[in-house]
Amino acid sequence: MGFTVGATDAVELTMISTYQGSVVMNVFHYVNEGGAILEADGENELLTLIDNFKLAAWDAAGADWKSLVVGDFLLKEIRAQVVRSTRKYYVSRIILENGGAVGDGIPSDTHMSITTRVALIGRGHTGNKKITGLSVGSFDGAYFTLASRVAFNTVAQSFLVKLNDVGAAPRWRPIVWSQLNPSVTNPIIQAYPQPTVRVLRRRQIFLGQ
Fold first, then answer.
1. Cys-Cys with 16: which of 77, 95, 171, 174 at CB 3.0–4.6 Å?
2. Cα(123)–Cα(181) distance, rounded to whole angstroms?
3. pLDDT tens per residue across span 89-101
4. Domain coordinates of the chain in residue numbers?
């Protein structure tokens, strides 16, 4: 059992976490730029993508998301699934790692927004990654502190990195992708945190379960 991955297929990578009783999902997309992947290799390639994403973003030395969120934030699982050109079943890694920041966390509906942009303008050409679980000391009034913005700007740069495949060759290009326009796979060229504290009104206790 397995699946092929086409030469221009897109993969959706989903971080599934829990925080203050809520399920939190952060979604990323990558396009295959390394040629077609055979059926026997598809699952292993996507698991490698998960591993390399985790190393680049969650626990990279000096740029790690993990150290910037509090202990109540638990990264449970990361899934990867081909979503273009034909949707395939997902593969996953169970993570079960807590954040490393000390102190109380911000409310689960409060977050830092990291904007991602491609070389085009207009609807469908920007993305937002909503990061919650930061410590209460990370903001002052309506704004995140300069220190927290600098730290998360370093994390944001990991969202621009082309990730390697099983053979350690660059293959997976980060993109902004939408189901409304699935044929478009524009590469992300810029990522940066917004300075203001945002509230996600749709996040509720046990949402997603």
1. 77
2. 11
3. 999 999 999 999 9
4. 10-199
